[in-house]
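Summary of Year 1 activities. Much of the first year was spent building the evaluation harness for sequence design. The harness presents a backbone, in tokenized form, and records the residue chosen at every position. We chose the following record to illustrate the format because it has been used consistently in internal testing since the harness was completed.
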């Protein structure tokens, strides 16, 4: 098994990417290939005493900027470290790809280079987020499709259910629809029509769920259009970050508070770990022929290691075939 990693994607590239790649190769005993400028990769590894003798490097000097338009990966940046990794997967030179780079470009490249699975109308960007009860849920779509039809949202529900069952090992994942109320008649035409379709789909549909409930573990898969999903995603991440900083500031406020912090330090660290997105590795782009994972832009070595772990689980579970089988069950359902 070979996993390709974009060495120049993300804020902490290439050092943290290299460290994560080496850790994954040593732990999982698989082939790892880094795409990017070979001279820089070797220079950074040498400066930080990192042995990369077991890591393959596929050289290219191009890197797609994080603020570049998504379609640029098919044009002026079609030989970037990201594009090169996607091409290796598409050409069966590797089994999966991980990048912490430009999200939009990765979604476009995954769709047009790796290609969609048969029957998939639109791939979904699907981040897995932590909950306060120590569990997690998938948000799909997280921003790849700003508008969507009911049949596309139904497909998102199926894609998310397969992933949460096969990769996250969630038995009979609860699929919910994002809405402004729990009643079946709530929302606009998109929500009402999607509700009806999900009721007839081969998933464990639990109805509408309001966004205030997702952090408490109300569902395993939260389905919405990409516009709604991206707002939810950024708000979720922002609130979690603000909450963490606020708690820290409170305990630093006075000597009395600092002493109090000593008594609850262990519980605070457990809480912090509960809300740590690094353990989930990244967001899969679901609905394409091979596993492609988008790691967070601020990914460190641990994030990359976990992204590789999830990619391996995705491959071993044969997720693409399971998705195609699930879509075949839709035949005859109007």
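For this record, the design step produced the sequence shown next.
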């Amino acid at each position: 098994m070979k996993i390709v990693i974009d060495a120049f994607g993300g804020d902490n590239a290439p050092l943290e990417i290299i460290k994560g790649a080496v850790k994954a190769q040593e732990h999982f005993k698989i082939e790892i290939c880094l795409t990017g400028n070979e001279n820089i990769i070797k220079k950074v590894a040498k400066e930080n005493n990192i042995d990369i003798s077991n890591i393959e490097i596929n050289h290219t000097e191009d890197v797609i900027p994080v603020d570049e338009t998504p379609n640029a990966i098919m044009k002026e940046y079609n030989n970037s470290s990201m594009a090169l990794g996607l091409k290796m997967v598409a050409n069966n030179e590797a089994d999966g790809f991980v990048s912490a780079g430009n999200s939009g470009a990765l979604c476009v490249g995954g769709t047009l280079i790796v290609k969609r699975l048969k029957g998939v109308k639109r791939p979904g960007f699907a981040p897995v987020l932590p909950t306060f009860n120590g569990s997690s849920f998938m948000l799909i779509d997280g921003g790849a499709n700003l508008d969507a039809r009911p049949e596309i949202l139904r497909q998102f529900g199926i894609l998310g259910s397969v992933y949460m069952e096969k990769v996250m090992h969630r038995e009979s994942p609860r699929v919910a629809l994002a809405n402004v109320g729990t009643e079946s008649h709530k929302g606009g035409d998109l929500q009402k029509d999607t509700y009806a379709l999900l009721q007839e789909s081969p998933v464990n549909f639990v109805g509408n769920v309001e966004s205030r409930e997702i952090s408490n573990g109300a569902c395993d898969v939260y389905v919405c259009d990409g516009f709604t999903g991206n707002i939810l995603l950024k708000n979720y991440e922002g609130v979690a970050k603000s909450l963490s900083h606020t708690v820290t500031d409170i305990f630093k406020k006075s000597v009395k508070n600092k002493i109090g912090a000593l008594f609850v330090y262990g519980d605070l660290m457990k809480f912090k770990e509960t809300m740590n997105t690094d353990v989930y590795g990244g967001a899969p782009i679901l609905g394409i022929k091979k596993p492609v994972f988008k790691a967070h832009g601020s990914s460190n070595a641990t994030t990359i290691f976990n992204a590789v772990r999830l990619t391996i689980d995705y491959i071993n579970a044969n997720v693409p075939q399971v998705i195609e089988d699930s879509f075949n069950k839709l035949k005859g359902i109007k």
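The first strand starts at residue 2 and ends at 6. Quantitative recovery figures across the full test set are reported in Table 2.
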